[in-house]
Amino acid sequence: MSQKLVPRRAILPLIAAALVLPIVICVILAVGSVLTAMGDTLGWAVLRRIALAGGIVWAVDLVCLLVVLAVNALADDHEPLDS
């Protein structure tokens, strides 16, 4: 049996972050909308920047997850590459 190149404990946090970050971003944007309705435009601007940073982190997480899963898929391949 071949050993995995990337352990499961490294994949699970990436999957968890991929599922949780969009929810966090939506909550931050919702709170920012409430702040705007209350007249706090500075608070909305700050939360919008935080949500943008969260979106960037989410995109990086998805790319890392894709690469890690691709490496695992290649490690599981038992066929020769020249076939």
Plain-language structure description:
The chain is mostly helical and 83 residues long. The chain has one domain. It has helices spanning 8-37, 41-75. The longest helix is centred in the last third of the chain and has 35 residues, at 41-75. The chain is rod-shaped. It starts with 7 loop residues before the first helix and ends in an 8-residue tail after the last helix.
Notable traits:
mainly alpha; rod-shaped; 83 residues
Summarize the structure.
By secondary structure, the chain is mostly helical.
How many helices? 2
Percent of residues in helical segments? over 70%
Quickly count the domains: 1
Determine the mean pLDDT: 90
**Proportion of β residues?**
under 5%
Strand count: 0
Low-confidence sequence ranges: none
- What pattern of helices and strands is seen along the backbone? HH
Structural class: mainly alpha
Using only C-alpha atoms, the radius of gyration works out to 19 Å
**Main sheet summary:** none
Shape: rod-shaped
Distance between the termini: 21 Å
